[in-house]
């Protein structure tokens, strides 16, 4: 096989039909199109792709010289595939419709099909030549370009396939452009394997991934430690409650990390894992509310009916908000991102109502336990509020555009503040339990 054959084997021939066939004789044009289409419909095995490409070349060479010299042919290179991990397919789009449609040869790269409205190219997806020539081109992109230029062997393609591809904001797909102040470090349209590998790249998601992975490990450790400690001093119901709370915190951290790892896989995966991330947040809110109601009414000696009704009402409201938050994730409802965030914000703010109710029932600030718990609840809400303001206002990248792309941008701070809030709430539960164990129940008797 000649060098030319090796090169053309892994390339797309795009958009030559509409221009080429308008200048060629109608009979030869129809013959070329029919021949090409027939071969690609019958032959999908990688071993015959070279034969099909040679047929296309022969047809082109037989056309008028005046036609072929004015033909504009765009060759877009894609990575070669290995026999174990890759598959080769073809993708035809509306061939032969009024002789104006283009003939395309498609392929699957890293088991991922590029969307129909995007053109894959040398840096992976939707990039322009301007970006390839950018002065800010990273080492990773230079690696891809250098291996692309040779593309003479399977080893070169294997090297290209393993390149770490990072994009600037202008070149990232639209669904990742939710923060215009983050100007670089975007991953895009990676395979599952590369998504996992990208955990160890230095990107604008690295801190987001690892901050909550570390948080997940932290709460796993706390779950084991608290369970062993509480077995000595508390009842089984208390142990179950604390373990469930910490498991929900673990899931929130883990699902958040999963979202940040795989959100770059495709737009569909972005939407899917964003919903998974919201599920984790919702589970943590449910756990916080349920544990709060359990501890708040721990020692009240009012009638069982009254306490049951009170807890039931608050629980139903919390679960209704959980269902509303989950319903907002249904794609068919097409709920905007701002609306989803608003639901979570209102849900979190709702906690002020049962807290004020508890404070009044306890006798206000004259009660020692109220004086102990009020500052801790205020700190909890302050941490969450600061996190939300930083996230919504995109601070500090709003003022330091392009300077905190990889470390220190708003989503990093959001993660750290939420992690701190969860840890603080865990400690608050321990403080409350310790107070009750040491001092008994001195709350007012409800009638």
From TrEMBL:
This is Progestin and adipoQ receptor family member 3. One of its GO terms (molecular function) is signaling receptor activity. Its main location: membrane. Belongs to the ADIPOR family. It holds the Pfam family HlyIII. The lineage of its organism: Eukaryota, Metazoa, Ecdysozoa, Arthropoda, Hexapoda. It comes from Glossina morsitans morsitans. Keywords: Membrane, Metal-binding, Transmembrane, Transmembrane helix, Zinc. The chain crosses the membrane at residues 209-228, 240-262, 278-300, 312-330, 342-361, 373-393, 413-433. One of its GO terms (cellular component) is membrane. It comes from the Eukaryota. It is a multi-pass membrane protein. Zn(2+) binds at residues 260, 411, 415. InterPro entries: AdipoR/HlyIII-related. It is found in: Membrane. Signal peptide: none annotated.
């Amino acid at each position: 096989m000649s060098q030319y054959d090796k090169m053309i084997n892994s390339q797309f021939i795009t958009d030559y039909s509409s221009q080429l066939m308008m200048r060629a004789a109608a009979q030869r044009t129809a013959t070329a199109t029919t021949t090409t289409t027939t071969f690609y419909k019958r032959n999908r095995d990688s071993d015959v792709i070279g034969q099909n490409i040679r047929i296309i070349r022969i047809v082109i060479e037989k056309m008028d010289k005046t036609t072929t010299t004015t033909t504009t042919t765009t060759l877009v290179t894609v990575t070669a595939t290995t026999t174990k991990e890759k598959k080769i397919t073809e993708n035809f789009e509306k061939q032969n419709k009024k002789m104006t449609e283009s003939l395309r040869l498609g392929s699957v790269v890293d088991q991922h099909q590029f969307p129909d409205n995007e053109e894959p190219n040398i840096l992976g997806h939707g990039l322009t030549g301007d970006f390839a020539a950018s002065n800010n081109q990273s080492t990773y992109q230079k690696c891809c370009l250098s291996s692309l230029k040779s593309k003479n062997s399977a080893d070169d393609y294997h090297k290209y396939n393993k390149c770490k591809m990072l994009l600037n904001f202008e070149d990232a797909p639209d669904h990742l452009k939710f923060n215009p102040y983050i100007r670089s470090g975007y991953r895009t349209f990676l395979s599952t394997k590369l998504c996992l590998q990208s955990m160890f790249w230095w990107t604008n998601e690295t801190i987001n991934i690892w901050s909550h992975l570390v948080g997940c490990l932290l709460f796993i450790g706390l779950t084991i430690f608290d369970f062993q400690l509480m077995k000595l001093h508390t009842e089984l119901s208390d142990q179950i409650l604390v373990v469930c709370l910490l498991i929900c915190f673990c899931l929130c951290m883990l699902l958040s990390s999963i979202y940040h790892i795989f959100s770059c896989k495709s737009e569909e995966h972005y939407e899917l894992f964003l919903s998974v991330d919201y599920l984790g947040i919702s589970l943590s809110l449910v756990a916080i509310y349920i544990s709060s109601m359990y501890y708040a009414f721990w020692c009240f000696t009012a009638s069982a009916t009254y306490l049951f009704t009170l807890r039931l009402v608050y629980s139903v409201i919390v679960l209704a908000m959980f269902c509303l938050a989950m319903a907002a994730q249904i794609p068919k409802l097409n709920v905007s991102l701002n609306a989803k965030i608003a639901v979570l914000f209102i849900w979190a703010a709702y906690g002020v109502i049962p807290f004020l109710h508890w404070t009044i029932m306890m006798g206000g600030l004259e009660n020692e336990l109220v004086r102990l718990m009020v500052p801790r609840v205020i700190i909890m809400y302050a941490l969450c509020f600061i996190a939300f303001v930083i996230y919504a206002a995109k601070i500090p990248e709003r003022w330091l555009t392009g300077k905190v792309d990889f470390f220190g941008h708003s989503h990093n701070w959001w993660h750290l503040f939420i992690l701190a809030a969860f840890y603080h709430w865990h400690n608050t539960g321990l403080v409350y339990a310790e107070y009750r164990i040491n001092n008994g129940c001195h709350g007012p008797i409800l009638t």
